[in-house]
Design a protein that fits this description.
Blueprint lengths: L2 H4 L8 H29 L5 H28 L7 H34 L5 H26 L8 H6 L6 H33 L4 H24 L3 H4 L3 H28 L3 H20 L7 H8 L16 E2 L2 E2 L5 E6 L7 E7 L8 H6 L4 H8 L1
Antiparallel strand pairs: 1-2, 3-4
Helix pairs in contact: 2-3, 2-10, 3-4, 3-10, 4-5, 4-7, 4-10, 5-7, 7-8, 8-10, 11-12
């Protein structure tokens, strides 16, 4: 064994790559998670279990990236040759990061399952989602404990590995690594494929279908990363030095996988926010041309995104406050639509606290619990 391989330098561990990857995807996840909390918690007031689980997922992801950033900075400053204690410390952090990755993936899958169960209504689709997530959660939990304690005390991973006190790689760790990677990819593809059946038969505009499919496609990219990570399984099990050199690649791919998954899952909930921005821009242009003052707000824009168009005003009981033209609806919203073809006729639609005497037949159909409507409500 050559000396350069026996004692790898800290700069061999791709510190800059790990640092850049961690910072980029941590920033992306922060932006999209905060936007999701705003949309689901304030704009449409529909904060559910999938959102809570996503917050836990992001917290674990932030811990994972923070550890990687810490390792990267310690390897960059100062450069030099890693002594045995430093190597053992790095390996301990690697084990912790791997455990956090598995735990983050489990919580992330649970969040996706709750999210998609709000979208699909057919029995077989729900059974497939529940069954696949349940199997992955059980296997992932078992794999989590094996990965952390494969060499006994995680703090002595490097020492126990050198003394041969770890679980055998070829007969135990290698098969479990591959099984976890395949399970991970399969569940991602299930989450991506099943809603396609809903989108295909949904009464949606072509642009809406393209948007939904694009968001689902981002989630599939995460599953591709989980398959790419399998290429490093055999390498990390050869020698301790190979683990040190290959662990950064393993970590980078894992961060990309989780970062893309969290970002895509949060983007799927931001449709009301995008609708508000587009509606505000469109209303501003229209008002500047006509000289009229038209009130806009997140809730009104969200109503427009659901197919309600025209000039609208708001009224009702306990409406909340109206600041700078933004209406915060707390209990009831009445949307008045003035149609050019029906001069003098006004259609009232209660978005909250509906009254059957004021419902249009199309609005009644829109409120039926069909799969495509659920998809538009969530995405």
């Amino acid at each position: 064994m050559s000396s350069d391989k026996a004692v790898p330098t800290l700069h061999d561990l791709k510190s800059y790559d790990m640092l850049a990857t961690s910072c980029v995807f941590l920033a992306l996840s922060v932006i999209t998670v905060v936007a999701r909390i705003y949309v689901r918690g304030w704009m449409i007031r529909s904060f559910g279990w999938d959102d809570w689980l996503m917050m836990v997922t992001w917290a674990l992801f932030a811990m994972t990236t923070s550890l990687l950033i810490s390792i990267s900075l310690s390897e960059i400053h100062p450069p030099g040759v890693a002594d045995p204690d430093t190597v053992n410390g790095i390996l301990t952090l690697v084990v912790c990061i791997f455990g956090l990755y598995i735990l983050t993936t489990i919580i992330f899958k649970l969040s996706l399952a709750v999210f998609f169960l709000r979208v699909v209504n057919q029995r077989w689709q729900r059974q497939v989602i529940i069954g696949s997530v349940s199997l992955y959660t059980l296997f992932g939990t078992a794999w989590l404990f094996v990965a952390i304690f494969q060499c006994g005390n995680p703090g002595d991973y490097g020492k126990n590995e050198a003394l041969g006190k770890c679980l055998p790689f070829q007969t135990v760790l290698r098969p479990l690594n591959y099984t976890h990677g395949v399970f991970n990819a399969v569940t991602d593809w299930i989450f991506a494929i099943i809603p396609i059946f809903v989108v295909r038969s949904a009464q949606m505009h072509k642009q809406q279908k393209i948007t939904v499919c694009t968001i689902l496609g981002l989630g599939v990219l995460g599953s591709i990363c989980s398959l790419v990570r399998l290429a490093y399984v055999d390498v990390i099990g050869v020698e301790l030095q190979d683990l040190l050199v290959s662990a950064p690649n393993f970590a980078i791919v894992s961060i990309i996988e989780l970062g893309l998954g969290i970002t895509a899952a949060c983007l799927a909930t931001l449709r009301p926010l995008f609708a508000f921005w587009f509606d505000k821009a469109r209303t501003g242009i229209s008002s500047s041309r006509s000289g009229r003052n038209t009130k806009t707000g997140p809730t009104a824009a969200y109503a427009n995104s659901k197919g309600i168009s025209g000039s609208y005003v708001t009224s009702g009981h306990d409406m909340g406050r109206k600041d700078d033209g933004v209406v915060t609806v707390t209990r009831e919203l009445q949307v008045h639509i003035n149609r050019p073809s029906d001069a003098g006729n006004t259609l009232e639609m209660h978005a909250m606290g509906p009254s059957p005497h004021h419902q249009h037949p199309r609005d009644t159909r829109r409120r039926s619990q069909s799969s495509e409507e659920s998809l538009l409500e969530v995405v």
